[in-house]
Each structure stands twice: as structure tokens, then as C-alpha cells.
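Notes to self after the Tuesday call (sharing in case useful).
The group wants a holo model before anyone commits to mutagenesis around the pocket. I volunteered. Ligand is S-adenosylmethionine. Logging inputs and output together so the record is complete.
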Amino acid sequence: MPKVRIELCRDGSHTLYSETRGSYYHNPNGAVEESLYIYFERPGIIEALKENKPVSVMEIGFGTGLNLLLLANLAKKLESKSQISFTSVEAYPISPEEAGLLNYREFVVYPELFDEVLEIFPSLHSGADAITLKKIGSVNAQIHRCLFDDFDPGAHHHSPFTHVLHDPFDPEKNPELWTPAVFERLRLLSGDEAMLVTYGASTKARASMAVGGWLPARAPGALGKREMTVASLSEPKLNGLKRLNEIRLRDRWNAGEFKL
Ligand SMILES: C[S@@+](CC[C@H](N)C(=O)[O-])C[C@H]1O[C@@H](n2cnc3c(N)ncnc32)[C@H](O)[C@@H]1O
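Result:
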């Protein structure tokens, strides 16, 4: 189990600090605010929910379960008729007791959804490589308790992912989740118009995405951060964003300019 302590962010919401990784789970300026902006507003999930389009989310790093809670809360608030699935992978789940101390109930319109998310944590601790299936509001959630390398979505039916929330620790602390192989795997699991979003904005991370077959673009960052990255498999989906030169990024990666 990871050694974590609860910290208060500037927006009043909690985050965790991992003593094991020496890293925060969220931007200490605002866990809830940052997550809403980076993972829901930027990739167009809010828009898709409003338009009742299917939303099939893949998240890397379930952590506190905040993104699942925010998705279920948004869907309910918007009275969305979307078909919604949420798949996440977590190798080192926090304990049910730690999850129960988080103050996310105060940040959603439907606090009962947080209680439903909390019910997931005990099952993440029962047995190796377990998959927890649970309906949270209108969201069909499946949480895979395993390393991303061992993640096997085939075990349960899923439609190609429409939105990838890439939310590991930063590349220095969690390099195994920023490799071209990870981004390539995510691409192969995603639909043609998929959007991938991450708070990461380093050239190295973007080059890794480009080698994995994504088209990366810059977007303004959340809460005092200059930039974040939005990537897609479809050029039109990146309209209005500042595209990066994926060919040049790939060449630089292949020339050995970036080390993981
Ligand atoms: C930044 S935190 C995720 C924050 C989370 N999305 C939230 O809102 O609370 C990164 C998460 O990735 C998990 N993780 C790190 N390496 C992993 C790996 N190789 N496979 C699966 N999960 C991993 C960590 O245990 C941690 O929970």
C-alpha cells in the first residue's frame, strides 16, 4: 500500500501526497478545479455529455477516485443521456480508510455519489489483479487493480475509448507510464476521434506521445501552470489549439535526444 498523507489544496479540496513517490496526486493549487479543467473541459467530455454522445473514458491512475466522482456528478447535473463507461487502472490503491477521509463530498452536487465511489476501495484490496465493476450514477465503472503493463481490457467488453485521462505521477517519479509503448497501447485501445489529455507539458512527454502515434498540441495549463497537453488521433479535433510538429518530435526521440 502506498504511504500517503492528506493535504489541503488552495481551492479547499483535498489531495494526497505520496511519501513513497515523493509526489502529489493533484496540483496543490486545487485538486477539484484542476481535474475539472484538464480532464473534463479540455477534452470535450462536458460537451459530449451535453450532446448525449457516448463517452468511454480510460484513466491512468485511479488514485482517490476523484475523476470517476466528477464524471458521475457532471452526467447527473447535466441530465445527460450519454452511454458512459469509465475504465481505470490502479496498481497501488489507497486504503478505504484514507479514501473515506477525503472531503470531495463537499465539492459535488450529489454527495451520495462519493459514498458510492468509496464502496470501490475495499474491493481493490481483495485478491490480486481484481477487476471491480460498479455503476456510479449513470456511469459503468470498471477499475482494474493491476499495473498498466498487465491491463487487459479484453477481459470485459469495452467500446474504443473516446477520452483518455493520462494522470500518472510526473515523468521523473513515474517514468514507466510516460513511454511511447504506453501511448501506443492507449492509441490502439482508442477510437479514431479520441482525445488524450494530461497535465504534462514537457517536450519529452510530447515526443513520447508522438512516437506512440498521437498528434500532440499545447493548451493553456490549469491554476498557474503555463501549459498542458491535448493530443488526438484526429487533426480536426485539435482545431483551435496550437499543434506541435509530431514528425520533428518523433525524429528527436528517435535520435536519442530524450532519455526516460
Ligand atoms: C497522480 S496519481 C492519480 C490521481 C488520480 N487520477 C486522482 O484523481 O486521484 C497516479 C496514480 O497512478 C498509480 N500508478 C502509478 N504507477 C502505476 C502503474 N505502473 N500502473 C498502474 N497504476 C499506477 C498510483 O498508484 C497513483 O494512484
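Two things stood out.
The mean pLDDT is 95.
DSSP finds nine helices and twelve strands in the chain.
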